Amino acid sequence: MICNLCPRRCNTDRSTPQGLKRSICHASDDVEVALVSLHTWEEPILEAKNGAGTIFFSHCNLRCCFCQNHEISTEGHGLKISTKRLADIFLEEAQRGACCIELVTPGHYTRQIREALLDAKGRGLKLPVVYNSNAYELPETLRMLSGLVDIFLPDLKYFDNRLGEKYSGVSKYFDYASEAIRTMFDMVGPCELDEAGLLRRGLIIRHLVLPWQWRDSCRCLDWIHETFDDQVYVSIMNQYMPLFKACRHPEINRPLTTLEYQKVVRHAREIGITKGFIQVGRTDSAKFIPHFNEEHVLAENT
Q1: What is the SS3 string spanning the chain?
Q2: CA 59, CA 127: separation in Å to the nearest integer?
Q3: Fewer CB atoms inside 10 A, N or C side of the chain?
Q4: Model pLDDT, residue 72
Q5: For residue 50, how many other CB atoms are within 10 A of its CB?
Q6: pLDDT per residue over 203-231, tens digit each?
Q7: Largest CA distance in the chain
Q8: Which of 102, 105, 84, 80 is nearest to 93 (CA)?
Q9: pLDDT value of position 16
Q10: Residue 266: phi, psi to the nearest 5?
Q11: Which range is the signal sequence, renumbered to this chain (predicted)?
């Protein structure tokens, strides 16, 4: 199938070896998943006692030099499954007690995910569906999931497009990401919590603060607040680690300092952001990175 799902618009046939070489994400038409888990390190309004039912998809359309999940995003570790098996996974996560179904880096499998969600919902899936994305998306692709996704969880990585080119290998990152995030908000509207305080519909925008880039972080927060006011949640993260190929850029080849992070948090408070989350203490630890051991990807009797 010819793929133009993301802003890269590779126009490549993902069913052929030649097509896979031409594309950036290197994803085929077969869904690949590296881990199915109950994840307990998400924002408090996304996880109950048992955690979020996360499905970590292999491959990615970005090439972030500091990616913590490079084992699956760039190296493509994972197992191929059918869309029928993906629907089964959604239902199995519900049976394990997940409070939501969280799709992690799902954009390149939008067509297959749509089919699997329709199947699972037809078989009784009631949990909210969370779309966890790098935000380098096209509005028309996101709208393919209209009525199927309840919560969007995008990153807003950079305000300055030059940083996207330098650290993630993409052009016009903010231009595309900002439009995608607006589309996400149009699809789900303002945040709605249930009686237990869990998010049942809405938008949480994540932002990872990078070394030396706290000013760009503040510009991201300015845009979020000016665009959405207090209708969305903002999650400001301090968990940056100089992993993967970060050593190629000396300015970010170090941990984030407490002072840099505090500057961004202080700015959020000064501009009036009230619906937000911050990370306390040191979260730049490998213990927060999932083990992509393919657990629960295949059916138990295989």
Answers
A1: CEECCCCCCCCEECCCHHHHHHCCCCCCCCEEEEEEEEECCCCHHHCCCCCEEEEEECCCCCCCCCCCCHHHHCCCCCEEECHHHHHHHHHHHHHCCCCCEEEECCHHHHHHHHHHHHHHHHCCCCCCEEEEECCCCCHHHHHHHCCCCCEEEEECCCCCHHHHHHHHCCCCHHHHHHHHHHHHHHHHCCCEECCCCCEEEEEEEEEECCCCCHHHHHHHHHHHHHHHCCCCEEEEECCCCCCCCHHHCHHHCCCCCHHHHHHHHHHHHHHCCCCEEECCCCCCCHHHCCCCCCCCCCCCCC
A2: 25
A3: C
A4: 95
A5: 14
A6: 999 999 999 999 999 999 999 999 999 99
A7: 55
A8: 102
A9: 83
A10: -60, -40
A11: none
Q: Rounded to the nearest 5°, which phi and psi values hold at 250?
A: -55, -30
| CB-CB contact of 134 with 60 (8 Å) | yes
User: Which residue shows structure tokens 């996974």?
Assistant: 89
* pLDDT value, residue 234: 98
Instruction: Round to whole Å and give the CA distance between 228 and 31.
Output: 34
> pLDDT value at position 127?
97
Tell me the fold of 31-288.
TIM Barrel (3.20.20)
What is the Rg, in whole angstroms, of the alpha carbon atoms belonging to the chain?
Answer: 18
CA distance 119 to 121: 6
CA 292 to chain centre: 16
User: pLDDT, tens digit, for every residue of 93-106?
Assistant: 999 999 999 999 99
Stretches in the chain below the pLDDT threshold 70? 19, 21, 282-288, 301-302
Tokens of 109: 């499998």
C-beta separation of 39 from 99 below 8 A: no
pLDDT at 239: 93
